[in-house]
Amino acid sequence: xxNVLIALCLVLSGSxxxxxxxxxxxxxxxxxxxxxxxxxxxxxxxxxxxxYFGKIVWLKEPIDPETNLPKVDKNNPDPALQSVxxxxxxxLKDFTYAGNNQWTGxxxxxxxxxxxxxxxxxxxxxxTLDIRGYIGVSAFGRTDVWKRLQVQRN
Amino acid sequence: xxxxxxxxxxxxxSCSESGEHQDYTLDxxxxxxxxxxxxxxxxxxxxxVLDESLRGKVVGAKLKSARIHASDSAGLSMLGxxxxxxxxxKADMGGMAVLNPVPxxxxxxxLSVSAEADPTVYFEEGRFYLVMELGINQDWDADLSVxxxxxxxxxxxK
Lengths: 154, 158
Known about the structure:
heterodimer, A: 154 residues, alpha+beta, Lipocalin, two-stranded antiparallel sheet, 1 helix, 17% helix, B: 158 residues, mainly beta, Jelly Rolls, elongated, disordered N terminus
């Protein structure tokens, strides 16, 4: 009986461990450079700690015509941070992998108006994301399709 | 990539009704980006594990100052801008300070600290990341290292 219990424990702990590892690698499929449907920016997803973040690494129009300088986050509600460059700005923040090709719990920032929205990311396939931004309830939101810049095989 | 925090809290104590205030100082935090590095934006992160004596005792925190300085003769010449954020595995990321542009020819510079930013949640969590977003203005074949000095005002339970 004792041997059976030990064997059962080993099987269970092994299964838990492999599921943990699987979750990490599955979530990392989000890493890479993505382009929103409007083609005006490119966003690189990185991992910090156990969460995923996306920063702007390329802008179609990097210069602010009003200042003739590189664009900054001039609509940030915090005046002290309005000089943060948009290139390098993290517009996707704090996503965790929830399984089933979904990353949840994060936010998306719109530098055009300085607003932050709740956001979920759904990976249709390895090269396509549905990015849904919403306020309050997910049903009242908008979905944008992002494409991976460097195409990977499915 | 992370390395173990080498900084220690050094107390400048004062008292209030809810807790005691002390400075928490992080000196020479080494933010490293592996080369080669290309013009654009690079992220460097550094994990802080709060000392056991402060775990569960911090009830308030404020960033008082943030300064960067060069670790070699190249100075800060490669940097166009620096944005400093903090994040925990639970606590959401928050912007803390920025320097844009980095003064040319300087070997050290102070970041403008946000008065609205509240890093209390990271100290409550006890383990968090300092994140530097470095605006790189030229290609570079080697690793890049930038040192950071930070002073926080902590309110600690009596």
